[in-house]
Amino acid sequence: MELKLSPAEQAFAADVRTFIRDNLPPDIAGRVRRGEHLGKDDHMRWQQILGRHGWHAFTWPQEHGGPGWSVVQRYLFEVISAEMDCPIIQPFGPRMAGPVIYTFGTPEQKERFLPGIRQSTVWWCQGYSEPQSGSDLASLATRADDAGDHYVVNGQKIWTSYAHHADWMFCLVRTAREERPQQGISFLLIDMTSPGITVKPILMLEGTHSFNAVFFDNVRVPKNNRIGEEGRGWTYAKFLLEHERVDNAAIGVTKQALSQVKAIAAAERDGDTPLIDDPLFQAKLIAVEAQLMSLEMAALRVLSQVASGASPGPVSSLLKIRGTEVAQRISELGMEATAYYALPYQPGLIAGQSNEEPIGPDYAVTAANNYFWRRCMSIYGGSNEIQRNIIAKAMLGL
Amino acid sequence: MELKLSPAEQAFAADVRTFIRDNLPPDIAGRVRRGEHLGKDDHMRWQQILGRHGWHAFTWPQEHGGPGWSVVQRYLFEVISAEMDCPIIQPFGPRMAGPVIYTFGTPEQKERFLPGIRQSTVWWCQGYSEPQSGSDLASLATRADDAGDHYVVNGQKIWTSYAHHADWMFCLVRTAREERPQQGISFLLIDMTSPGITVKPILMLEGTHSFNAVFFDNVRVPKNNRIGEEGRGWTYAKFLLEHERVDNAAIGVTKQALSQVKAIAAAERDGDTPLIDDPLFQAKLIAVEAQLMSLEMAALRVLSQVASGASPGPVSSLLKIRGTEVAQRISELGMEATAYYALPYQPGLIAGQSNEEPIGPDYAVTAANNYFWRRCMSIYGGSNEIQRNIIAKAMLGL
Amino acid sequence: MDLEYSTEQSLLRDSVERFVRDDYAFQARQKILANGGFSAPHWTTFAELGWLGIPFAEEDGGFGGSAVDLAVIMEGVGRGLVLEPFLPTIMAGGLIAAAASSAQKQAWLTPLIAGECKLAVAFAEPQSRYDLADCTTRAAATGAGWRLEGRKCVVVGGKIADAFIVVARTSGDRRDRTGLSLFLVPADADGLTVRRYDTNDGQGAADLELAGVALGPDALLGPDGAALDPLERAVDGATAAVAAEAVGAMAALCDATLAYLKVRKQFGKPLGSNQALQHRMVDMVIALEEARSAALAASLSMTEDDAAARSRAISLAKIEIGRTATKVGQEAVQLHGAMGVTDELDVGHYFKRLTIIATSFGNADWHIRRVAALDAATRRSAPEQPAPGRTAA
Amino acid sequence: MDLEYSTEQSLLRDSVERFVRDDYAFQARQKILANGGFSAPHWTTFAELGWLGIPFAEEDGGFGGSAVDLAVIMEGVGRGLVLEPFLPTIMAGGLIAAAASSAQKQAWLTPLIAGECKLAVAFAEPQSRYDLADCTTRAAATGAGWRLEGRKCVVVGGKIADAFIVVARTSGDRRDRTGLSLFLVPADADGLTVRRYDTNDGQGAADLELAGVALGPDALLGPDGAALDPLERAVDGATAAVAAEAVGAMAALCDATLAYLKVRKQFGKPLGSNQALQHRMVDMVIALEEARSAALAASLSMTEDDAAARSRAISLAKIEIGRTATKVGQEAVQLHGAMGVTDELDVGHYFKRLTIIATSFGNADWHIRRVAALDAATRRSAPEQPAPGRTAA
């Protein structure tokens, strides 16, 4: 057992650092560092740079055009990317649509869709949640009626992240009513430019726009855009959910967030004392760092098991729960560090679309915003309550 | 609205202080202050002193021989008693058996049992819990079979506090099997010297003896020892439980416990700094004091409502939950304050039955013990989980 | 001891609740927010209902109410997420009532009570965090009065205040406890730049740049150099007031969450049938009751003559308010699921206001330090209490 | 990077688990406790299985194992609530291995590995709390060797130790980081009074009174006055070891609680069908996994060359162990209801041991302060990191 990196792993890490240093546009890095709400262009520019280098679909095996990295390499790539202020790679294409397509898709589907994901020329979104089926995903009601060579889709999705940027959606629809709600669900790929699709923004509590409601009014979807068999969509969706939870631990991003809060606390003065030397604030920072260290080790242990061929299983729920809680806690400390400067609300600066002067210190502009925004982490991707149900049932047999 | 005491209340408080100062035996006060496990004699001596003064049954109305105090007076008496290191008055007679007897008993029962409770010449215990009915009290199985002028009782009670000291038990037994488990329960008063009763000690995790198992093997109980109607015992038991929960907030004792932990923290040195000046320990003390201040105000609000004739209702569950949690937290800080001196285990000193030298500082002898013991507070009197169920159902309609 | 509302207090509570219910439903509130966070008709209503005069003495034209009366209104302010700068104005009025000459009262307090002017207190500075004595803004006596130089920040209510009470130093150094004075500064004073801005909780605030602001001799409020005590009292009073406001907001969140748990269905049954969520709802309600008790303790402590005892009680209460506001706010959002993190539901707005309350007038850490400092001072002046050991018996 | 057990480690784990299962069931353990907390046959078994030699170099007669190997054993020690002073002896052996001459090794380490002597390290003093440098026990050089005066307290394992490694000051003042030395002191040395006593967790301890204890020159272990570094390393190693022990105890509590929830019926259904209890059981399991990760991080950090980095990782891990041990212990007791607070069930005994672990080798507050001090030293020596603001972009 050995925590240290092997020479090959060290060389890999050095490569990643060099590539990012030479290729990450400084304006994008600045926006990430300041915690601004990134635009579509910011994401696409960086993802296409990675795509041209073969690193956008960095979790993919070589046979599908990925780099075929080991779990340790993937981990290093994520942590270094976060450390160096890269935008998070949007998961909808390379982490979600991609693996489903290359695992369950037809050769034609692979040929048609995988290159755009690898190159990040196409923005994908995820059509899962519906107004009446929050955590109870299987109760979805969006209907796809058989019309010969195509389906006619009617219904509504909600909480669809970045649907307003998206070219394509992978989507769960009901093609039949069966006894168990999990049956009769199919997995469709839908062109977002199809007639009959309306995207309406849902503003978040802190004022930004990430989520949407998507309405389907007699939308025609060719049957060859269906993944796998009709009625077996739940299987493909479940395959994804487990992988998503491991990702949700998001160790790299959280470590970077902690460094930033430490930097804020070093800059803030309480009287003549830097806040980071205030015993109580310091204690909270150290307590959360201790928890983050455990979490990182837990994630590495899971990766190590995955590398030996085991499925992550319900432990991924555990990482999702704690990963989101720790990230939220860090954002809370960041807000607390700014004292009264948590109050000013400067949406133009938060969106990076204004040159106005910050009211308080630079780092305070997004501090409260970031805290508010992160409350959604324990809700999305299957709420933390649902994750606890999963652990109770699948892992503990309760 | 006014928090300050009226002149009459101030005069009352002064009376209480004077009486305790003049009458509390110093050896007993010392044992209370040191957190030792008190013996029967300690309790009885003090309770009989109070009884002779008419203050043992201090919550009783004058018509039953109590002092007829207002809720504020009762509260002051409890807080001052705790502050001055009086033993806690054992509730089984004056707070439990007494009110049930004077509310539901016959004139003969009142005449027979109330004087011994007022004078504290008789030790009572509570026969509720059974091995298969923990928090689910109504599922009790101890049977009382009708045998003409008496019942024949068979079965087992458990967690019976101080049954080994007790002269009498008030006891729930099953006199009939009905559809709802709450039906068919009767409330009996049982002479603990009756043939067929066996009391077996259950040692607590910290080594002291408070709890017992009580076995009934064909115990004869005269029918005129039954309270109220046959089969309606559940009604009388429920009447008690609500009152018990308000008592369980135990503000006075908890405030005194906090003072003692502060005194320990002032005496402990970390390097040259008293522990009470250590920012982290201090912060924990202040945080729990803030919570205790809220709790006291909440208890006063409930008392104020009770004084205006309202029933405490489910709010008493809330006081029980938080009152026990706060008391546990304070005991945890007391243990933490003693660092390595939490380790030595000196049962003779804890029981006040030894003159050996304490290994560490005096105050460390009972510190860990006290923490261990107090874990039972969130379990007894209806576990805090059951209290949450009660609030959810009765107060929130969930 | 008596912890029941008087008849007058019950009537006041009813009138506040009626206003919030009838005139301050969430949609109406959002409209006011979109219009800059202030409704002139509402302000007139506040004056007409007497709210703006509640805490002031009858001889000053007020109603001689107590901190508990103010808390009754503030609980409604919290329940309705009221945006108008009620508390900043009352807080400024309190300083005027405590320190001003009768001419100054006539000039400022009378119109304030009549609803004709809105004030705000400028105490914080960019470097000060929560330390009221950490003041670098300076006021120098000139022949004709005073001249102010410096910067004040995050003046809540400052977005629409007609005038400010500015804390400035007439002597001493940054963080000295003496040498602070209060000045009445009209928003349109020469040399004063007011940067008005929105805040995360919708209340609106301003930063002030004072570049040689020239004021007459009557701008000085109270004795020169002795402002810290009344300022601490005013901030303690405002802390008790936001504690009550937080109770109102938490009560609204508990109601909303409980209703949602009963109505929203998942997996074919109401969310509220999940015992895990029931227990969390119970913990929210317990926190609300603790907050209510803490807020009451805070208001009642404002009659305390001993400033140290008052500040200690206020700090303990604020620690509790911080803890409970954070817990109730976070849990209400979480139990509402995705709806809870949207702008369109009121839940997120309550959450944001509670977050800001927790961080205002000192966060929990700051109040812990204040209690610790007060206790250390007490220990130094009092004989040591014996530890509860054998030898002390 | 590689986080899988080696084949040898898997075998070791199996052998430890077998011993605990077959020879250390709770009733057997209680019998050992009643007999003074030590079973000579078990000690022989430890020696035969090689556990007493695990962390020592092969040239010293050990097996050259790592901190991870030791952790594998300690997890079993925790699962079985093993009473014999395994860790105190190993910890003392580590100091000998690190500092002793080859003659001293022959005299002490060889019999230790063979199971012929039990040692304990006497570092704490009545006033020291967790500060290893806070040492007032003095050792003065005499013509014939050394003379020790002072008092050591709560020497875990001291109840049945054959000899002690005593930390004493050969120069400097209380709390100086230099001037500490290590001495081998047989339990029957003249002038040494050993007060042996039971502890709340059953491990047994002793206080030492050293009244002019005269020792030969070969009693000094390692260089005069330079003991703090190896002592800190030994305590860090012991901290990693009790972290693993805590994991074993927490795992046992999780297993017991889960089994109880499945078996115990209330209101006509298993306790475990209550969702509120399910979620709390899940939180216990999450805490266990966090503890397991923290303990692993601690063991792996023992190969770290930089003492500050090692200590920092150990402290972070101990903070986590403290938090999780408290949580799992308290919750296991609570979910067992009244059974959980009795002496007859194993749950209370695990809880007590976990409580003591949380308070041993520094509690959470102490380790937070240690990390803070290490970080402050780093900040002083490193250029300031820019805050993540606009201007720094």
UniProtKB/TrEMBL annotation, chains A, B:
Residues 125-219 form the Acyl-CoA oxidase/dehydrogenase middle domain. Residues 231-396 form the Acyl-CoA dehydrogenase/oxidase C-terminal domain. Keywords: FAD, Flavoprotein, Oxidoreductase. Transmembrane segments: none annotated. It holds the Pfam family Acyl-CoA_dh_M. Its cofactor is FAD. This is Acyl-CoA dehydrogenase. It comes from Chelatococcus reniformis.
Automatic annotation (TrEMBL), chains C, D:
Its cofactor is FAD. It comes from Chelatococcus reniformis. One of its GO terms (molecular function) is flavin adenine dinucleotide binding. This is Pimeloyl-CoA dehydrogenase small subunit. It holds the Pfam family Acyl-CoA_dh_1. The keyword Flavoprotein applies. Belongs to the acyl-CoA dehydrogenase family. Residues 240-372 form the Acyl-CoA dehydrogenase/oxidase C-terminal domain.
